[in-house]
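Entry 14. Structure prediction run on the chain below.
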Amino acid sequence: MDMFIVHSTIVVPLDKVSEVISIYRQRSGRVDTWPGFLSFQLLQNEHRPEELTVQLTWQDKDSYLAWARSEDFRRVHELEKHYPDADLRLVRPTVRKYQVVAE
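Output returned:
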């Protein structure tokens, strides 16, 4: 049971939530072809709609680390620095990483 899950949580201004969801719905999908990548979900907190979490599920930690050290990862995250909206450029994620220990 080696599965590895990464959560990247952001809190955005309420009036920007729909815009951010739209951005993720149109994401590049670069990560989708990486070896060991299993799934992507964008989660919205039920009680705090301004809190959005990207959940990436990986076959194992090594697969995630290969992605996180890649040029593709760097390119995807560089785009975040060039949002046309100044409020969104300032948003910084809280990242949490989990090893799946039971299913």
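The radius of gyration is 14 Å.
Filed with the rest of this week's runs.
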